[in-house]
């Protein structure tokens, strides 16, 4: 079985998968919804991924240029509109840019493809973490025939696309997905008619629109729920019903609530079954050690992540991993050696920074090996104007904490560290993948299933959230631009939505065959 390694699919899709594509025009559906014999194969990366290949020709797929029956040996649907352009291996090309739902920031590592299914039909995407959540197969559909990944400017170029009128085009990163129609593509030309495409802001924004099911626990010291509105998630998708997709709010200690009563966050993490409803769990800092977390909670959270769940935890939510909310610490056995934890449960001792601090974006791993995803984060932050002249990110002192330091001896991967001038040193953002002892491919690549991220960076104070009240999401400030640390958290959010690329590897488009081929 061939696999497709992309950093491009969602919570149910943490393993790297790759599909090998043979040149030709077969129309059978392969793993991940991509055709085994598509008209495209090629390469890509952060500098601008694209697909390329021989195409089927204007009159079909026969060796003599004639039209063959539309069966397993011939072309099908839009595949029959792919030209073999004289003197070109890229044929007809289509370019564009993918942006966040707000249309503000470009997005990295989004899959863009032309489906070959009748009418561009796509399958529904399963919600929550289930039996197939360690595979990307259930997330992509439509038998794509041309495909690419966006670079750190959000740009993409697809080669050997079909020409003609009303060509469907899908943008997807994990469970964020929508399809648009490109009105016209000229044969054997280079077109940027895809223009700027946003991820869906709600479930009616584009054909086959989909988004992950997200649970957010509010907190008195931060407003992650409002960050979602600033990246463009429509307030209409915030709802209390856990049967999403949508954004579901739980009323954390000191946090804001919606009109009417909201469930306590303990009802989110009081069982593994409750957690499994959600693709992403976001835990906003409560301003004090998290209540209702115990050693038992870790027995729910760890298998949730290992099964394909995603967790974004801030500051005091170290309680899920260390037990310091109940004074037991230093770490639960389900989360061994994640980081060097410090100042836990000691009020005020984790806020030593009296001035704004600068954070270094890690582009190499603590062991000295390359860290391609860190390179992408730094490039992306530069593209959105979030870095200072020295190429570092400025974190307001009110938003920075000191609770962890990740070194080469730890399991986690540091993404943002305080620079050498900041004392004491701390890791402001890091992640780790689970299960900790995953199966390994013949090529020696671990097949992780879920990811947890931890941030000592807050977003509070960066916008006027709840200045007119305290209802979620009504009183969230959805108009203020993102601050640099909020930009970093947006990158983290959409990275969290995608398939995991094992540390040290570069994401590849499906047409490349991938690192596991």
Brief synopsis:
The protein is of the alpha/beta class and 517 residues long. It has helices spanning 224-230, 266-269, 272-275, 295-306, 319-322, 372-383, 484-496, and strands at residues 93-99, 111-115, 144-149, 155-158, 164-173, 176-185, 190-198, 207-210, 213-217, 246-250, 280-283, 310-314, 340-341, 357-361, 393-395, 404-405, 413-418, 427-434, 450-455. Strand 11 (280-283), helix 4 and strand 12 (310-314) form a beta-alpha-beta unit.
Tell me about this structure.
The protein is 11% helix and 21% strand. It has helices at 224-230, 266-269, 272-275, 295-306, 319-322, 372-383, 484-496, and strands at residues 93-99, 111-115, 144-149, 155-158, 164-173, 176-185, 190-198, 207-210, 213-217, 246-250, 280-283, 310-314, 340-341, 357-361, 393-395, 404-405, 413-418, 427-434, 450-455. The strands form 4 sheets. A 9-stranded mixed beta sheet has the order 10-9-11-12-19-18-17-14-15, with helices on both faces. A 5-stranded antiparallel beta sheet has the order 3-2-5-6-8, with no helix packed on it. The longest helix is centred in the last third of the chain and has 13 residues, at 484-496. The chain is globular, with a radius of gyration of 23 Å.
Features:
517 residues, alpha/beta, Immunoglobulin-like, 2 domains, nine-stranded mixed beta sheet, 19 strands, 21% strand, disordered N terminus
């Amino acid at each position: 079985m061939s696999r497709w390694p992309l950093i491009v699919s969602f919570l149910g899709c943490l393993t790297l998968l790759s599909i090998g594509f043979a040149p030709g025009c077969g129309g059978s559906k392969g793993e991940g919804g991509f055709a085994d014999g598509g008209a495209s194969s090629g390469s890509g990366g952060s500098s601008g991924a694209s697909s390329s290949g021989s195409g089927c020709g204007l009159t079909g797929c026969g060796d003599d240029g004639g039209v063959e029956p539309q069966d397993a040996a011939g072309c099908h649907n839009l595949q029959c509109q792919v030209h073999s352009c004289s003197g070109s291996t890229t044929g007809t090309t289509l370019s564009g840019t993918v942006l966040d739902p707000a249309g503000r920031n470009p997005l990295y590592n989004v899959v863009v493809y032309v489906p070959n299914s009748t009418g561009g039909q796509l399958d529904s995407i399963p919600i929550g973490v289930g039996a197939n959540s360690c595979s990307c197969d259930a997330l992509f559909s439509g038998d794509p025939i041309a495909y690419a990944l966006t670079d750190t400017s959000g740009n993409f170029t697809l080669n050997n696309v079909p020409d003609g009128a009303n060509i469907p085009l899908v943008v997807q990163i994990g469970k964020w997905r929508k399809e648009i129609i490109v009105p016209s593509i000229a044969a054997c030309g280079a077109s940027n008619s895809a223009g700027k495409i946003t991820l869906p802001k709600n479930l009616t924004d584009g054909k086959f629109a989909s988004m992950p099911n997200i649970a957010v626990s509010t907190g008195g010291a931060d407003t992650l729920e409002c960050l979602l509105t600033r990246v463009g998630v429509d307030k209409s998708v915030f709802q209390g019903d856990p049967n999403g997709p949508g954004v579901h709010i739980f009323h954390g200690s000191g946090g804001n609530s919606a009109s009417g009563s909201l469930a306590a966050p303990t009802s989110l993490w009081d069982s593994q079954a409750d957690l499994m409803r959600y693709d992403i769990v976001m835990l906003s800092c409560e301003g004090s050690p998290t209540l209702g977390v115990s050693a038992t909670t870790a027995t729910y959270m760890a298998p949730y992540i290992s099964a394909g769940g995603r967790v974004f935890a801030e500051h005091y939510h170290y309680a899920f991993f260390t037990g310091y909310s109940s004074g037991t610490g230093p770490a639960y056995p389900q989360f061994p050696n994640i980081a060097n934890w410090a100042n836990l449960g000691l009020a005020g001792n984790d806020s030593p920074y009296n001035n704004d601090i600068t954070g270094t974006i890690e582009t190499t791993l603590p062991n000295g090996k390359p860290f391609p995803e860190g390179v992408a984060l730094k490039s992306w932050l530069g593209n959105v104007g979030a870095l200072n002249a020295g190429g570092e990110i400025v974190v307001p002192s009110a938003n920075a904490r000191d609770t962890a330091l990740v070194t080469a001896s730890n399991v986690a991967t540091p993404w943002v560290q305080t620079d050498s001038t900041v004392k004491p040193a701390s890791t402001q953002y890091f992640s780790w993948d689970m299960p900790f002892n995953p199966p390994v491919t013949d090529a020696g690549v671990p097949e992780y299933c879920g990811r947890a991220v931890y941030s000592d960076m807050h977003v509070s104070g960066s916008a006027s959230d709840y200045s007119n009240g305290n209802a979620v999401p009504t009183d969230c400030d959805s108009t203020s631009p993102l601050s640099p640390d909020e930009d970093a958290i947006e990158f983290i959010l959409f990275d969290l939505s995608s398939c995991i690329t094992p540390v040290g590897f570069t994401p590849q488009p499906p047409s490349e065959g991938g690192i596991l081929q």
